[in-house]
Design brief:
The complex is a heterodimer of chains A (202) and B (254). Chain A has ten helices and no strands. Chain A is mainly α and 202 residues long. Chain A has two domains: 91 residues, RNA polymerase sigma factor, region 2, helix turn helix motif (Rna Polymerase Sigma Factor, Chain: A), CATH 1.10.1740; 103 residues, Winged helix-like DNA-binding domain superfamily/Winged helix DNA-binding domain (Arc Repressor Mutant, subunit A), CATH 1.10.10. Chain A starts with 13 loop residues before the first helix and ends with a helix. The N terminus and C terminus of chain A are likely disordered. With 254 residues, chain B is mostly helical. Chain B folds into two domains: 49 residues, no CATH class; 188 residues, no CATH class. Chain B is 65% helix and 2% strand. Chain B contains ten helices and two strands. In chain B, strands 1-2 form a two-stranded antiparallel ribbon. The chains are: A mainly alpha (202), B mainly alpha (254). Chains A and B meet through helix 2, helix 3, helix 7, helix 8 and helix 10 of A and helix 1, helix 3, helix 4, helix 6 and helix 7 of B.
Chain lengths: 202, 254
């Protein structure tokens, strides 16, 4: 179950805040930043390994929210619009920064799992890893997913959006979101648990 | 597809609670009887558990979130080049002079009437330190981008209008799409008016107002327009050099 984070919006709906931003209310704008900054950071981090780069993309995202504020339409979900901006900004930065570091990722995943699998302790190899190491492996595995699958995972688990909202954010049918979620979870399962089985029995 | 294969296709959505009732019941009944599928469902749940860990991709505790608004303002300042009327690489000095002449003749009188540039719109009280500078920079960045977007959409609409097809009631032009866009742009202009008071984009006000007048005229059109009215609209666009003037302003704002 996805738990609401401490920054979860309180009483004012986000669409109302955004409507106030459209009228030039900078307090409402800063409130939206406060509410969403950490979630946006998590979504962007699925593209950006370097936290400083991720932070710059967060800044670009919220700058765009302000400068393009009149292109948001009240009938659409603010969160869907916001995360569409965040994903586009991430993709832009990703393309500009020289993207292919997969060799490094594969090495890292292999090394971590191998280290665990050869430690002669019973039980699930990934479970045996310390929480921090397991998170690193999971993060790298998410970054290796095909773009659309990664977007669905990010929006579902880090932005904590409903599948319908994700469809709106990605401008695609609900069925496509479901299909990509299915593929993504199975890909992660295969990548993380499948490798473990191979290594454990190897 | 055997039953296990079909059930495995549904396990992720089952874990998400996103299945129809009939499928949900079927999966539940199958899992109660099939150890292999139950193990697979457990693995999927394991992955979901890891994904819901709030620490995955979490920012480090040392990140200074309270400085984010100031950092955004700093990026607003650097995101666009310094204000300039003509691009440095726009061509020869003679070209630049001729463009300047066009601008002076075209805008001079209207511009003089509209001077001095009004004050920027009043902003809400700031709370955090450094907010005054932040608000100012954001306002400038927004005014420039919003104006540039409005001009770009107007330009696109004018070009579409001039290319409208003669596919309405025989000899008439179908402008229903353009009329709808014109109405949306009129609403956009109402929101833009407060931004056009910013000194940074005040020079765009005259053209934006002129475009708005044209759009109001267009928005009253019928779905089908006669060739005569289409000619008059096109003639107006050319006579007033609307497309050229939009281009010049965009070169300043981009």
């Amino acid at each position: 179950m996805v738990h609401p984070p401490p920054d979860e919006p309180a009483s004012v709906p986000n669409e109302d805040l955004m409507a106030r931003v459209q009228r030039g209310d900078m307090n409402a704008y800063q409130e939206l930043i406060r509410l969403y900054q950490k979630k946006v950071f998590r979504v962007i981090s699925s593209y950006q390994r370097n936290p400083e780069d991720a932070m710059e993309v967060v800044q670009d995202t919220f700058l765009k929210v302000y400068t393009a504020r009149n292109t948001w339409e009240r009938r659409t979900s603010f969160a869907a619009w916001l995360y569409r901006i965040a994903i586009n900004a991430s993709i832009d930065r990703y393309r500009r920064s020289g993207k292919d570091k997969t060799a490094y990722l594969e090495d890292m995943v292999e090394a971590q799992i191998h280290k665990s699998a050869t430690s002669n302790r019973p039980g699930n190899a990934l479970d045996r890893l310390r929480a921090g190491e397991r998170r690193s492996i999971l993060e790298e595995a998410i970054r290796r997913l095909p773009a659309r699958q990664r977007e669905v995972i990010s929006l579902r688990f880090f932005a904590e959006m409903q599948l319908v909202e994700i469809a709106e954010a990605l401008h695609c049918p609900l069925g496509t979101v479901k299909s990509n979620l299915h593929k993504a979870i199975n890909a992660l399962k295969s990548l993380l648990l499948g490798r473990e089985e191979v290594l454990s029995h190897g | 597809m055997d039953n296990c294969s079909r059930i495995k296709e549904l396990l992720v959505l089952h874990a998400e609670g996103a299945l129809e009732a009939a499928d949900y019941d079927e999966v539940r009944a199958h899992l109660a009887a099939c150890a292999a599928c139950k193990r697979e469902a457990g693995e999927i749940e394991q992955i979901r558990q890891w994904l819901t860990d709030p620490e995955v991709f979490a920012p480090t505790p040392d990140m200074a979130w309270q400085l984010l608004p100031s950092a955004i303002a700093a990026r607003a300042k650097t995101a666009r080049p310094v204000n300039r009327w003509l691009p440095a690489n726009a061509g020869s000095p003679a070209w630049a002079l001729s463009m300047a002449a066009v601008i002076v003749i075209g805008f001079g009188s209207i511009w003089l009437v509209n001077r001095p540039a009004p004050e920027p719109p009043a902003l809400s009280a700031a709370e955090a330190p450094g907010n005054a500078a932040f608000l100012g920079k954001m306002q400038v960045a927004y005014a420039r981008e919003a104006t540039a977007q409005y001009l770009s959409e107007c330009q696109d609409l004018l070009l579409t209008l001039m290319r409208a097809g003669k596919n309405c009631d025989g000899n008439n032009y179908d402008v229903s799409f353009e009329v709808e866009r014109a109405r949306r742009l009129i609403q956009r202009k109402q929101l833009l008016d407060s931004e056009l008071k910013s000194p940074d984009v005040a020079r765009a006000k005259a053209l934006c107002d002129e475009l708005d007048n044209f759009l109001v005229h267009l928005s009253t059109s019928d779905r089908c327009e006669s060739p005569d009215k289409m000619r008059r609209m096109e003639s107006y666009i050319q006579k007033e050099q609307l497309l050229l003037r939009i281009n010049l302003l965009q070169s300043e704002l981009s």
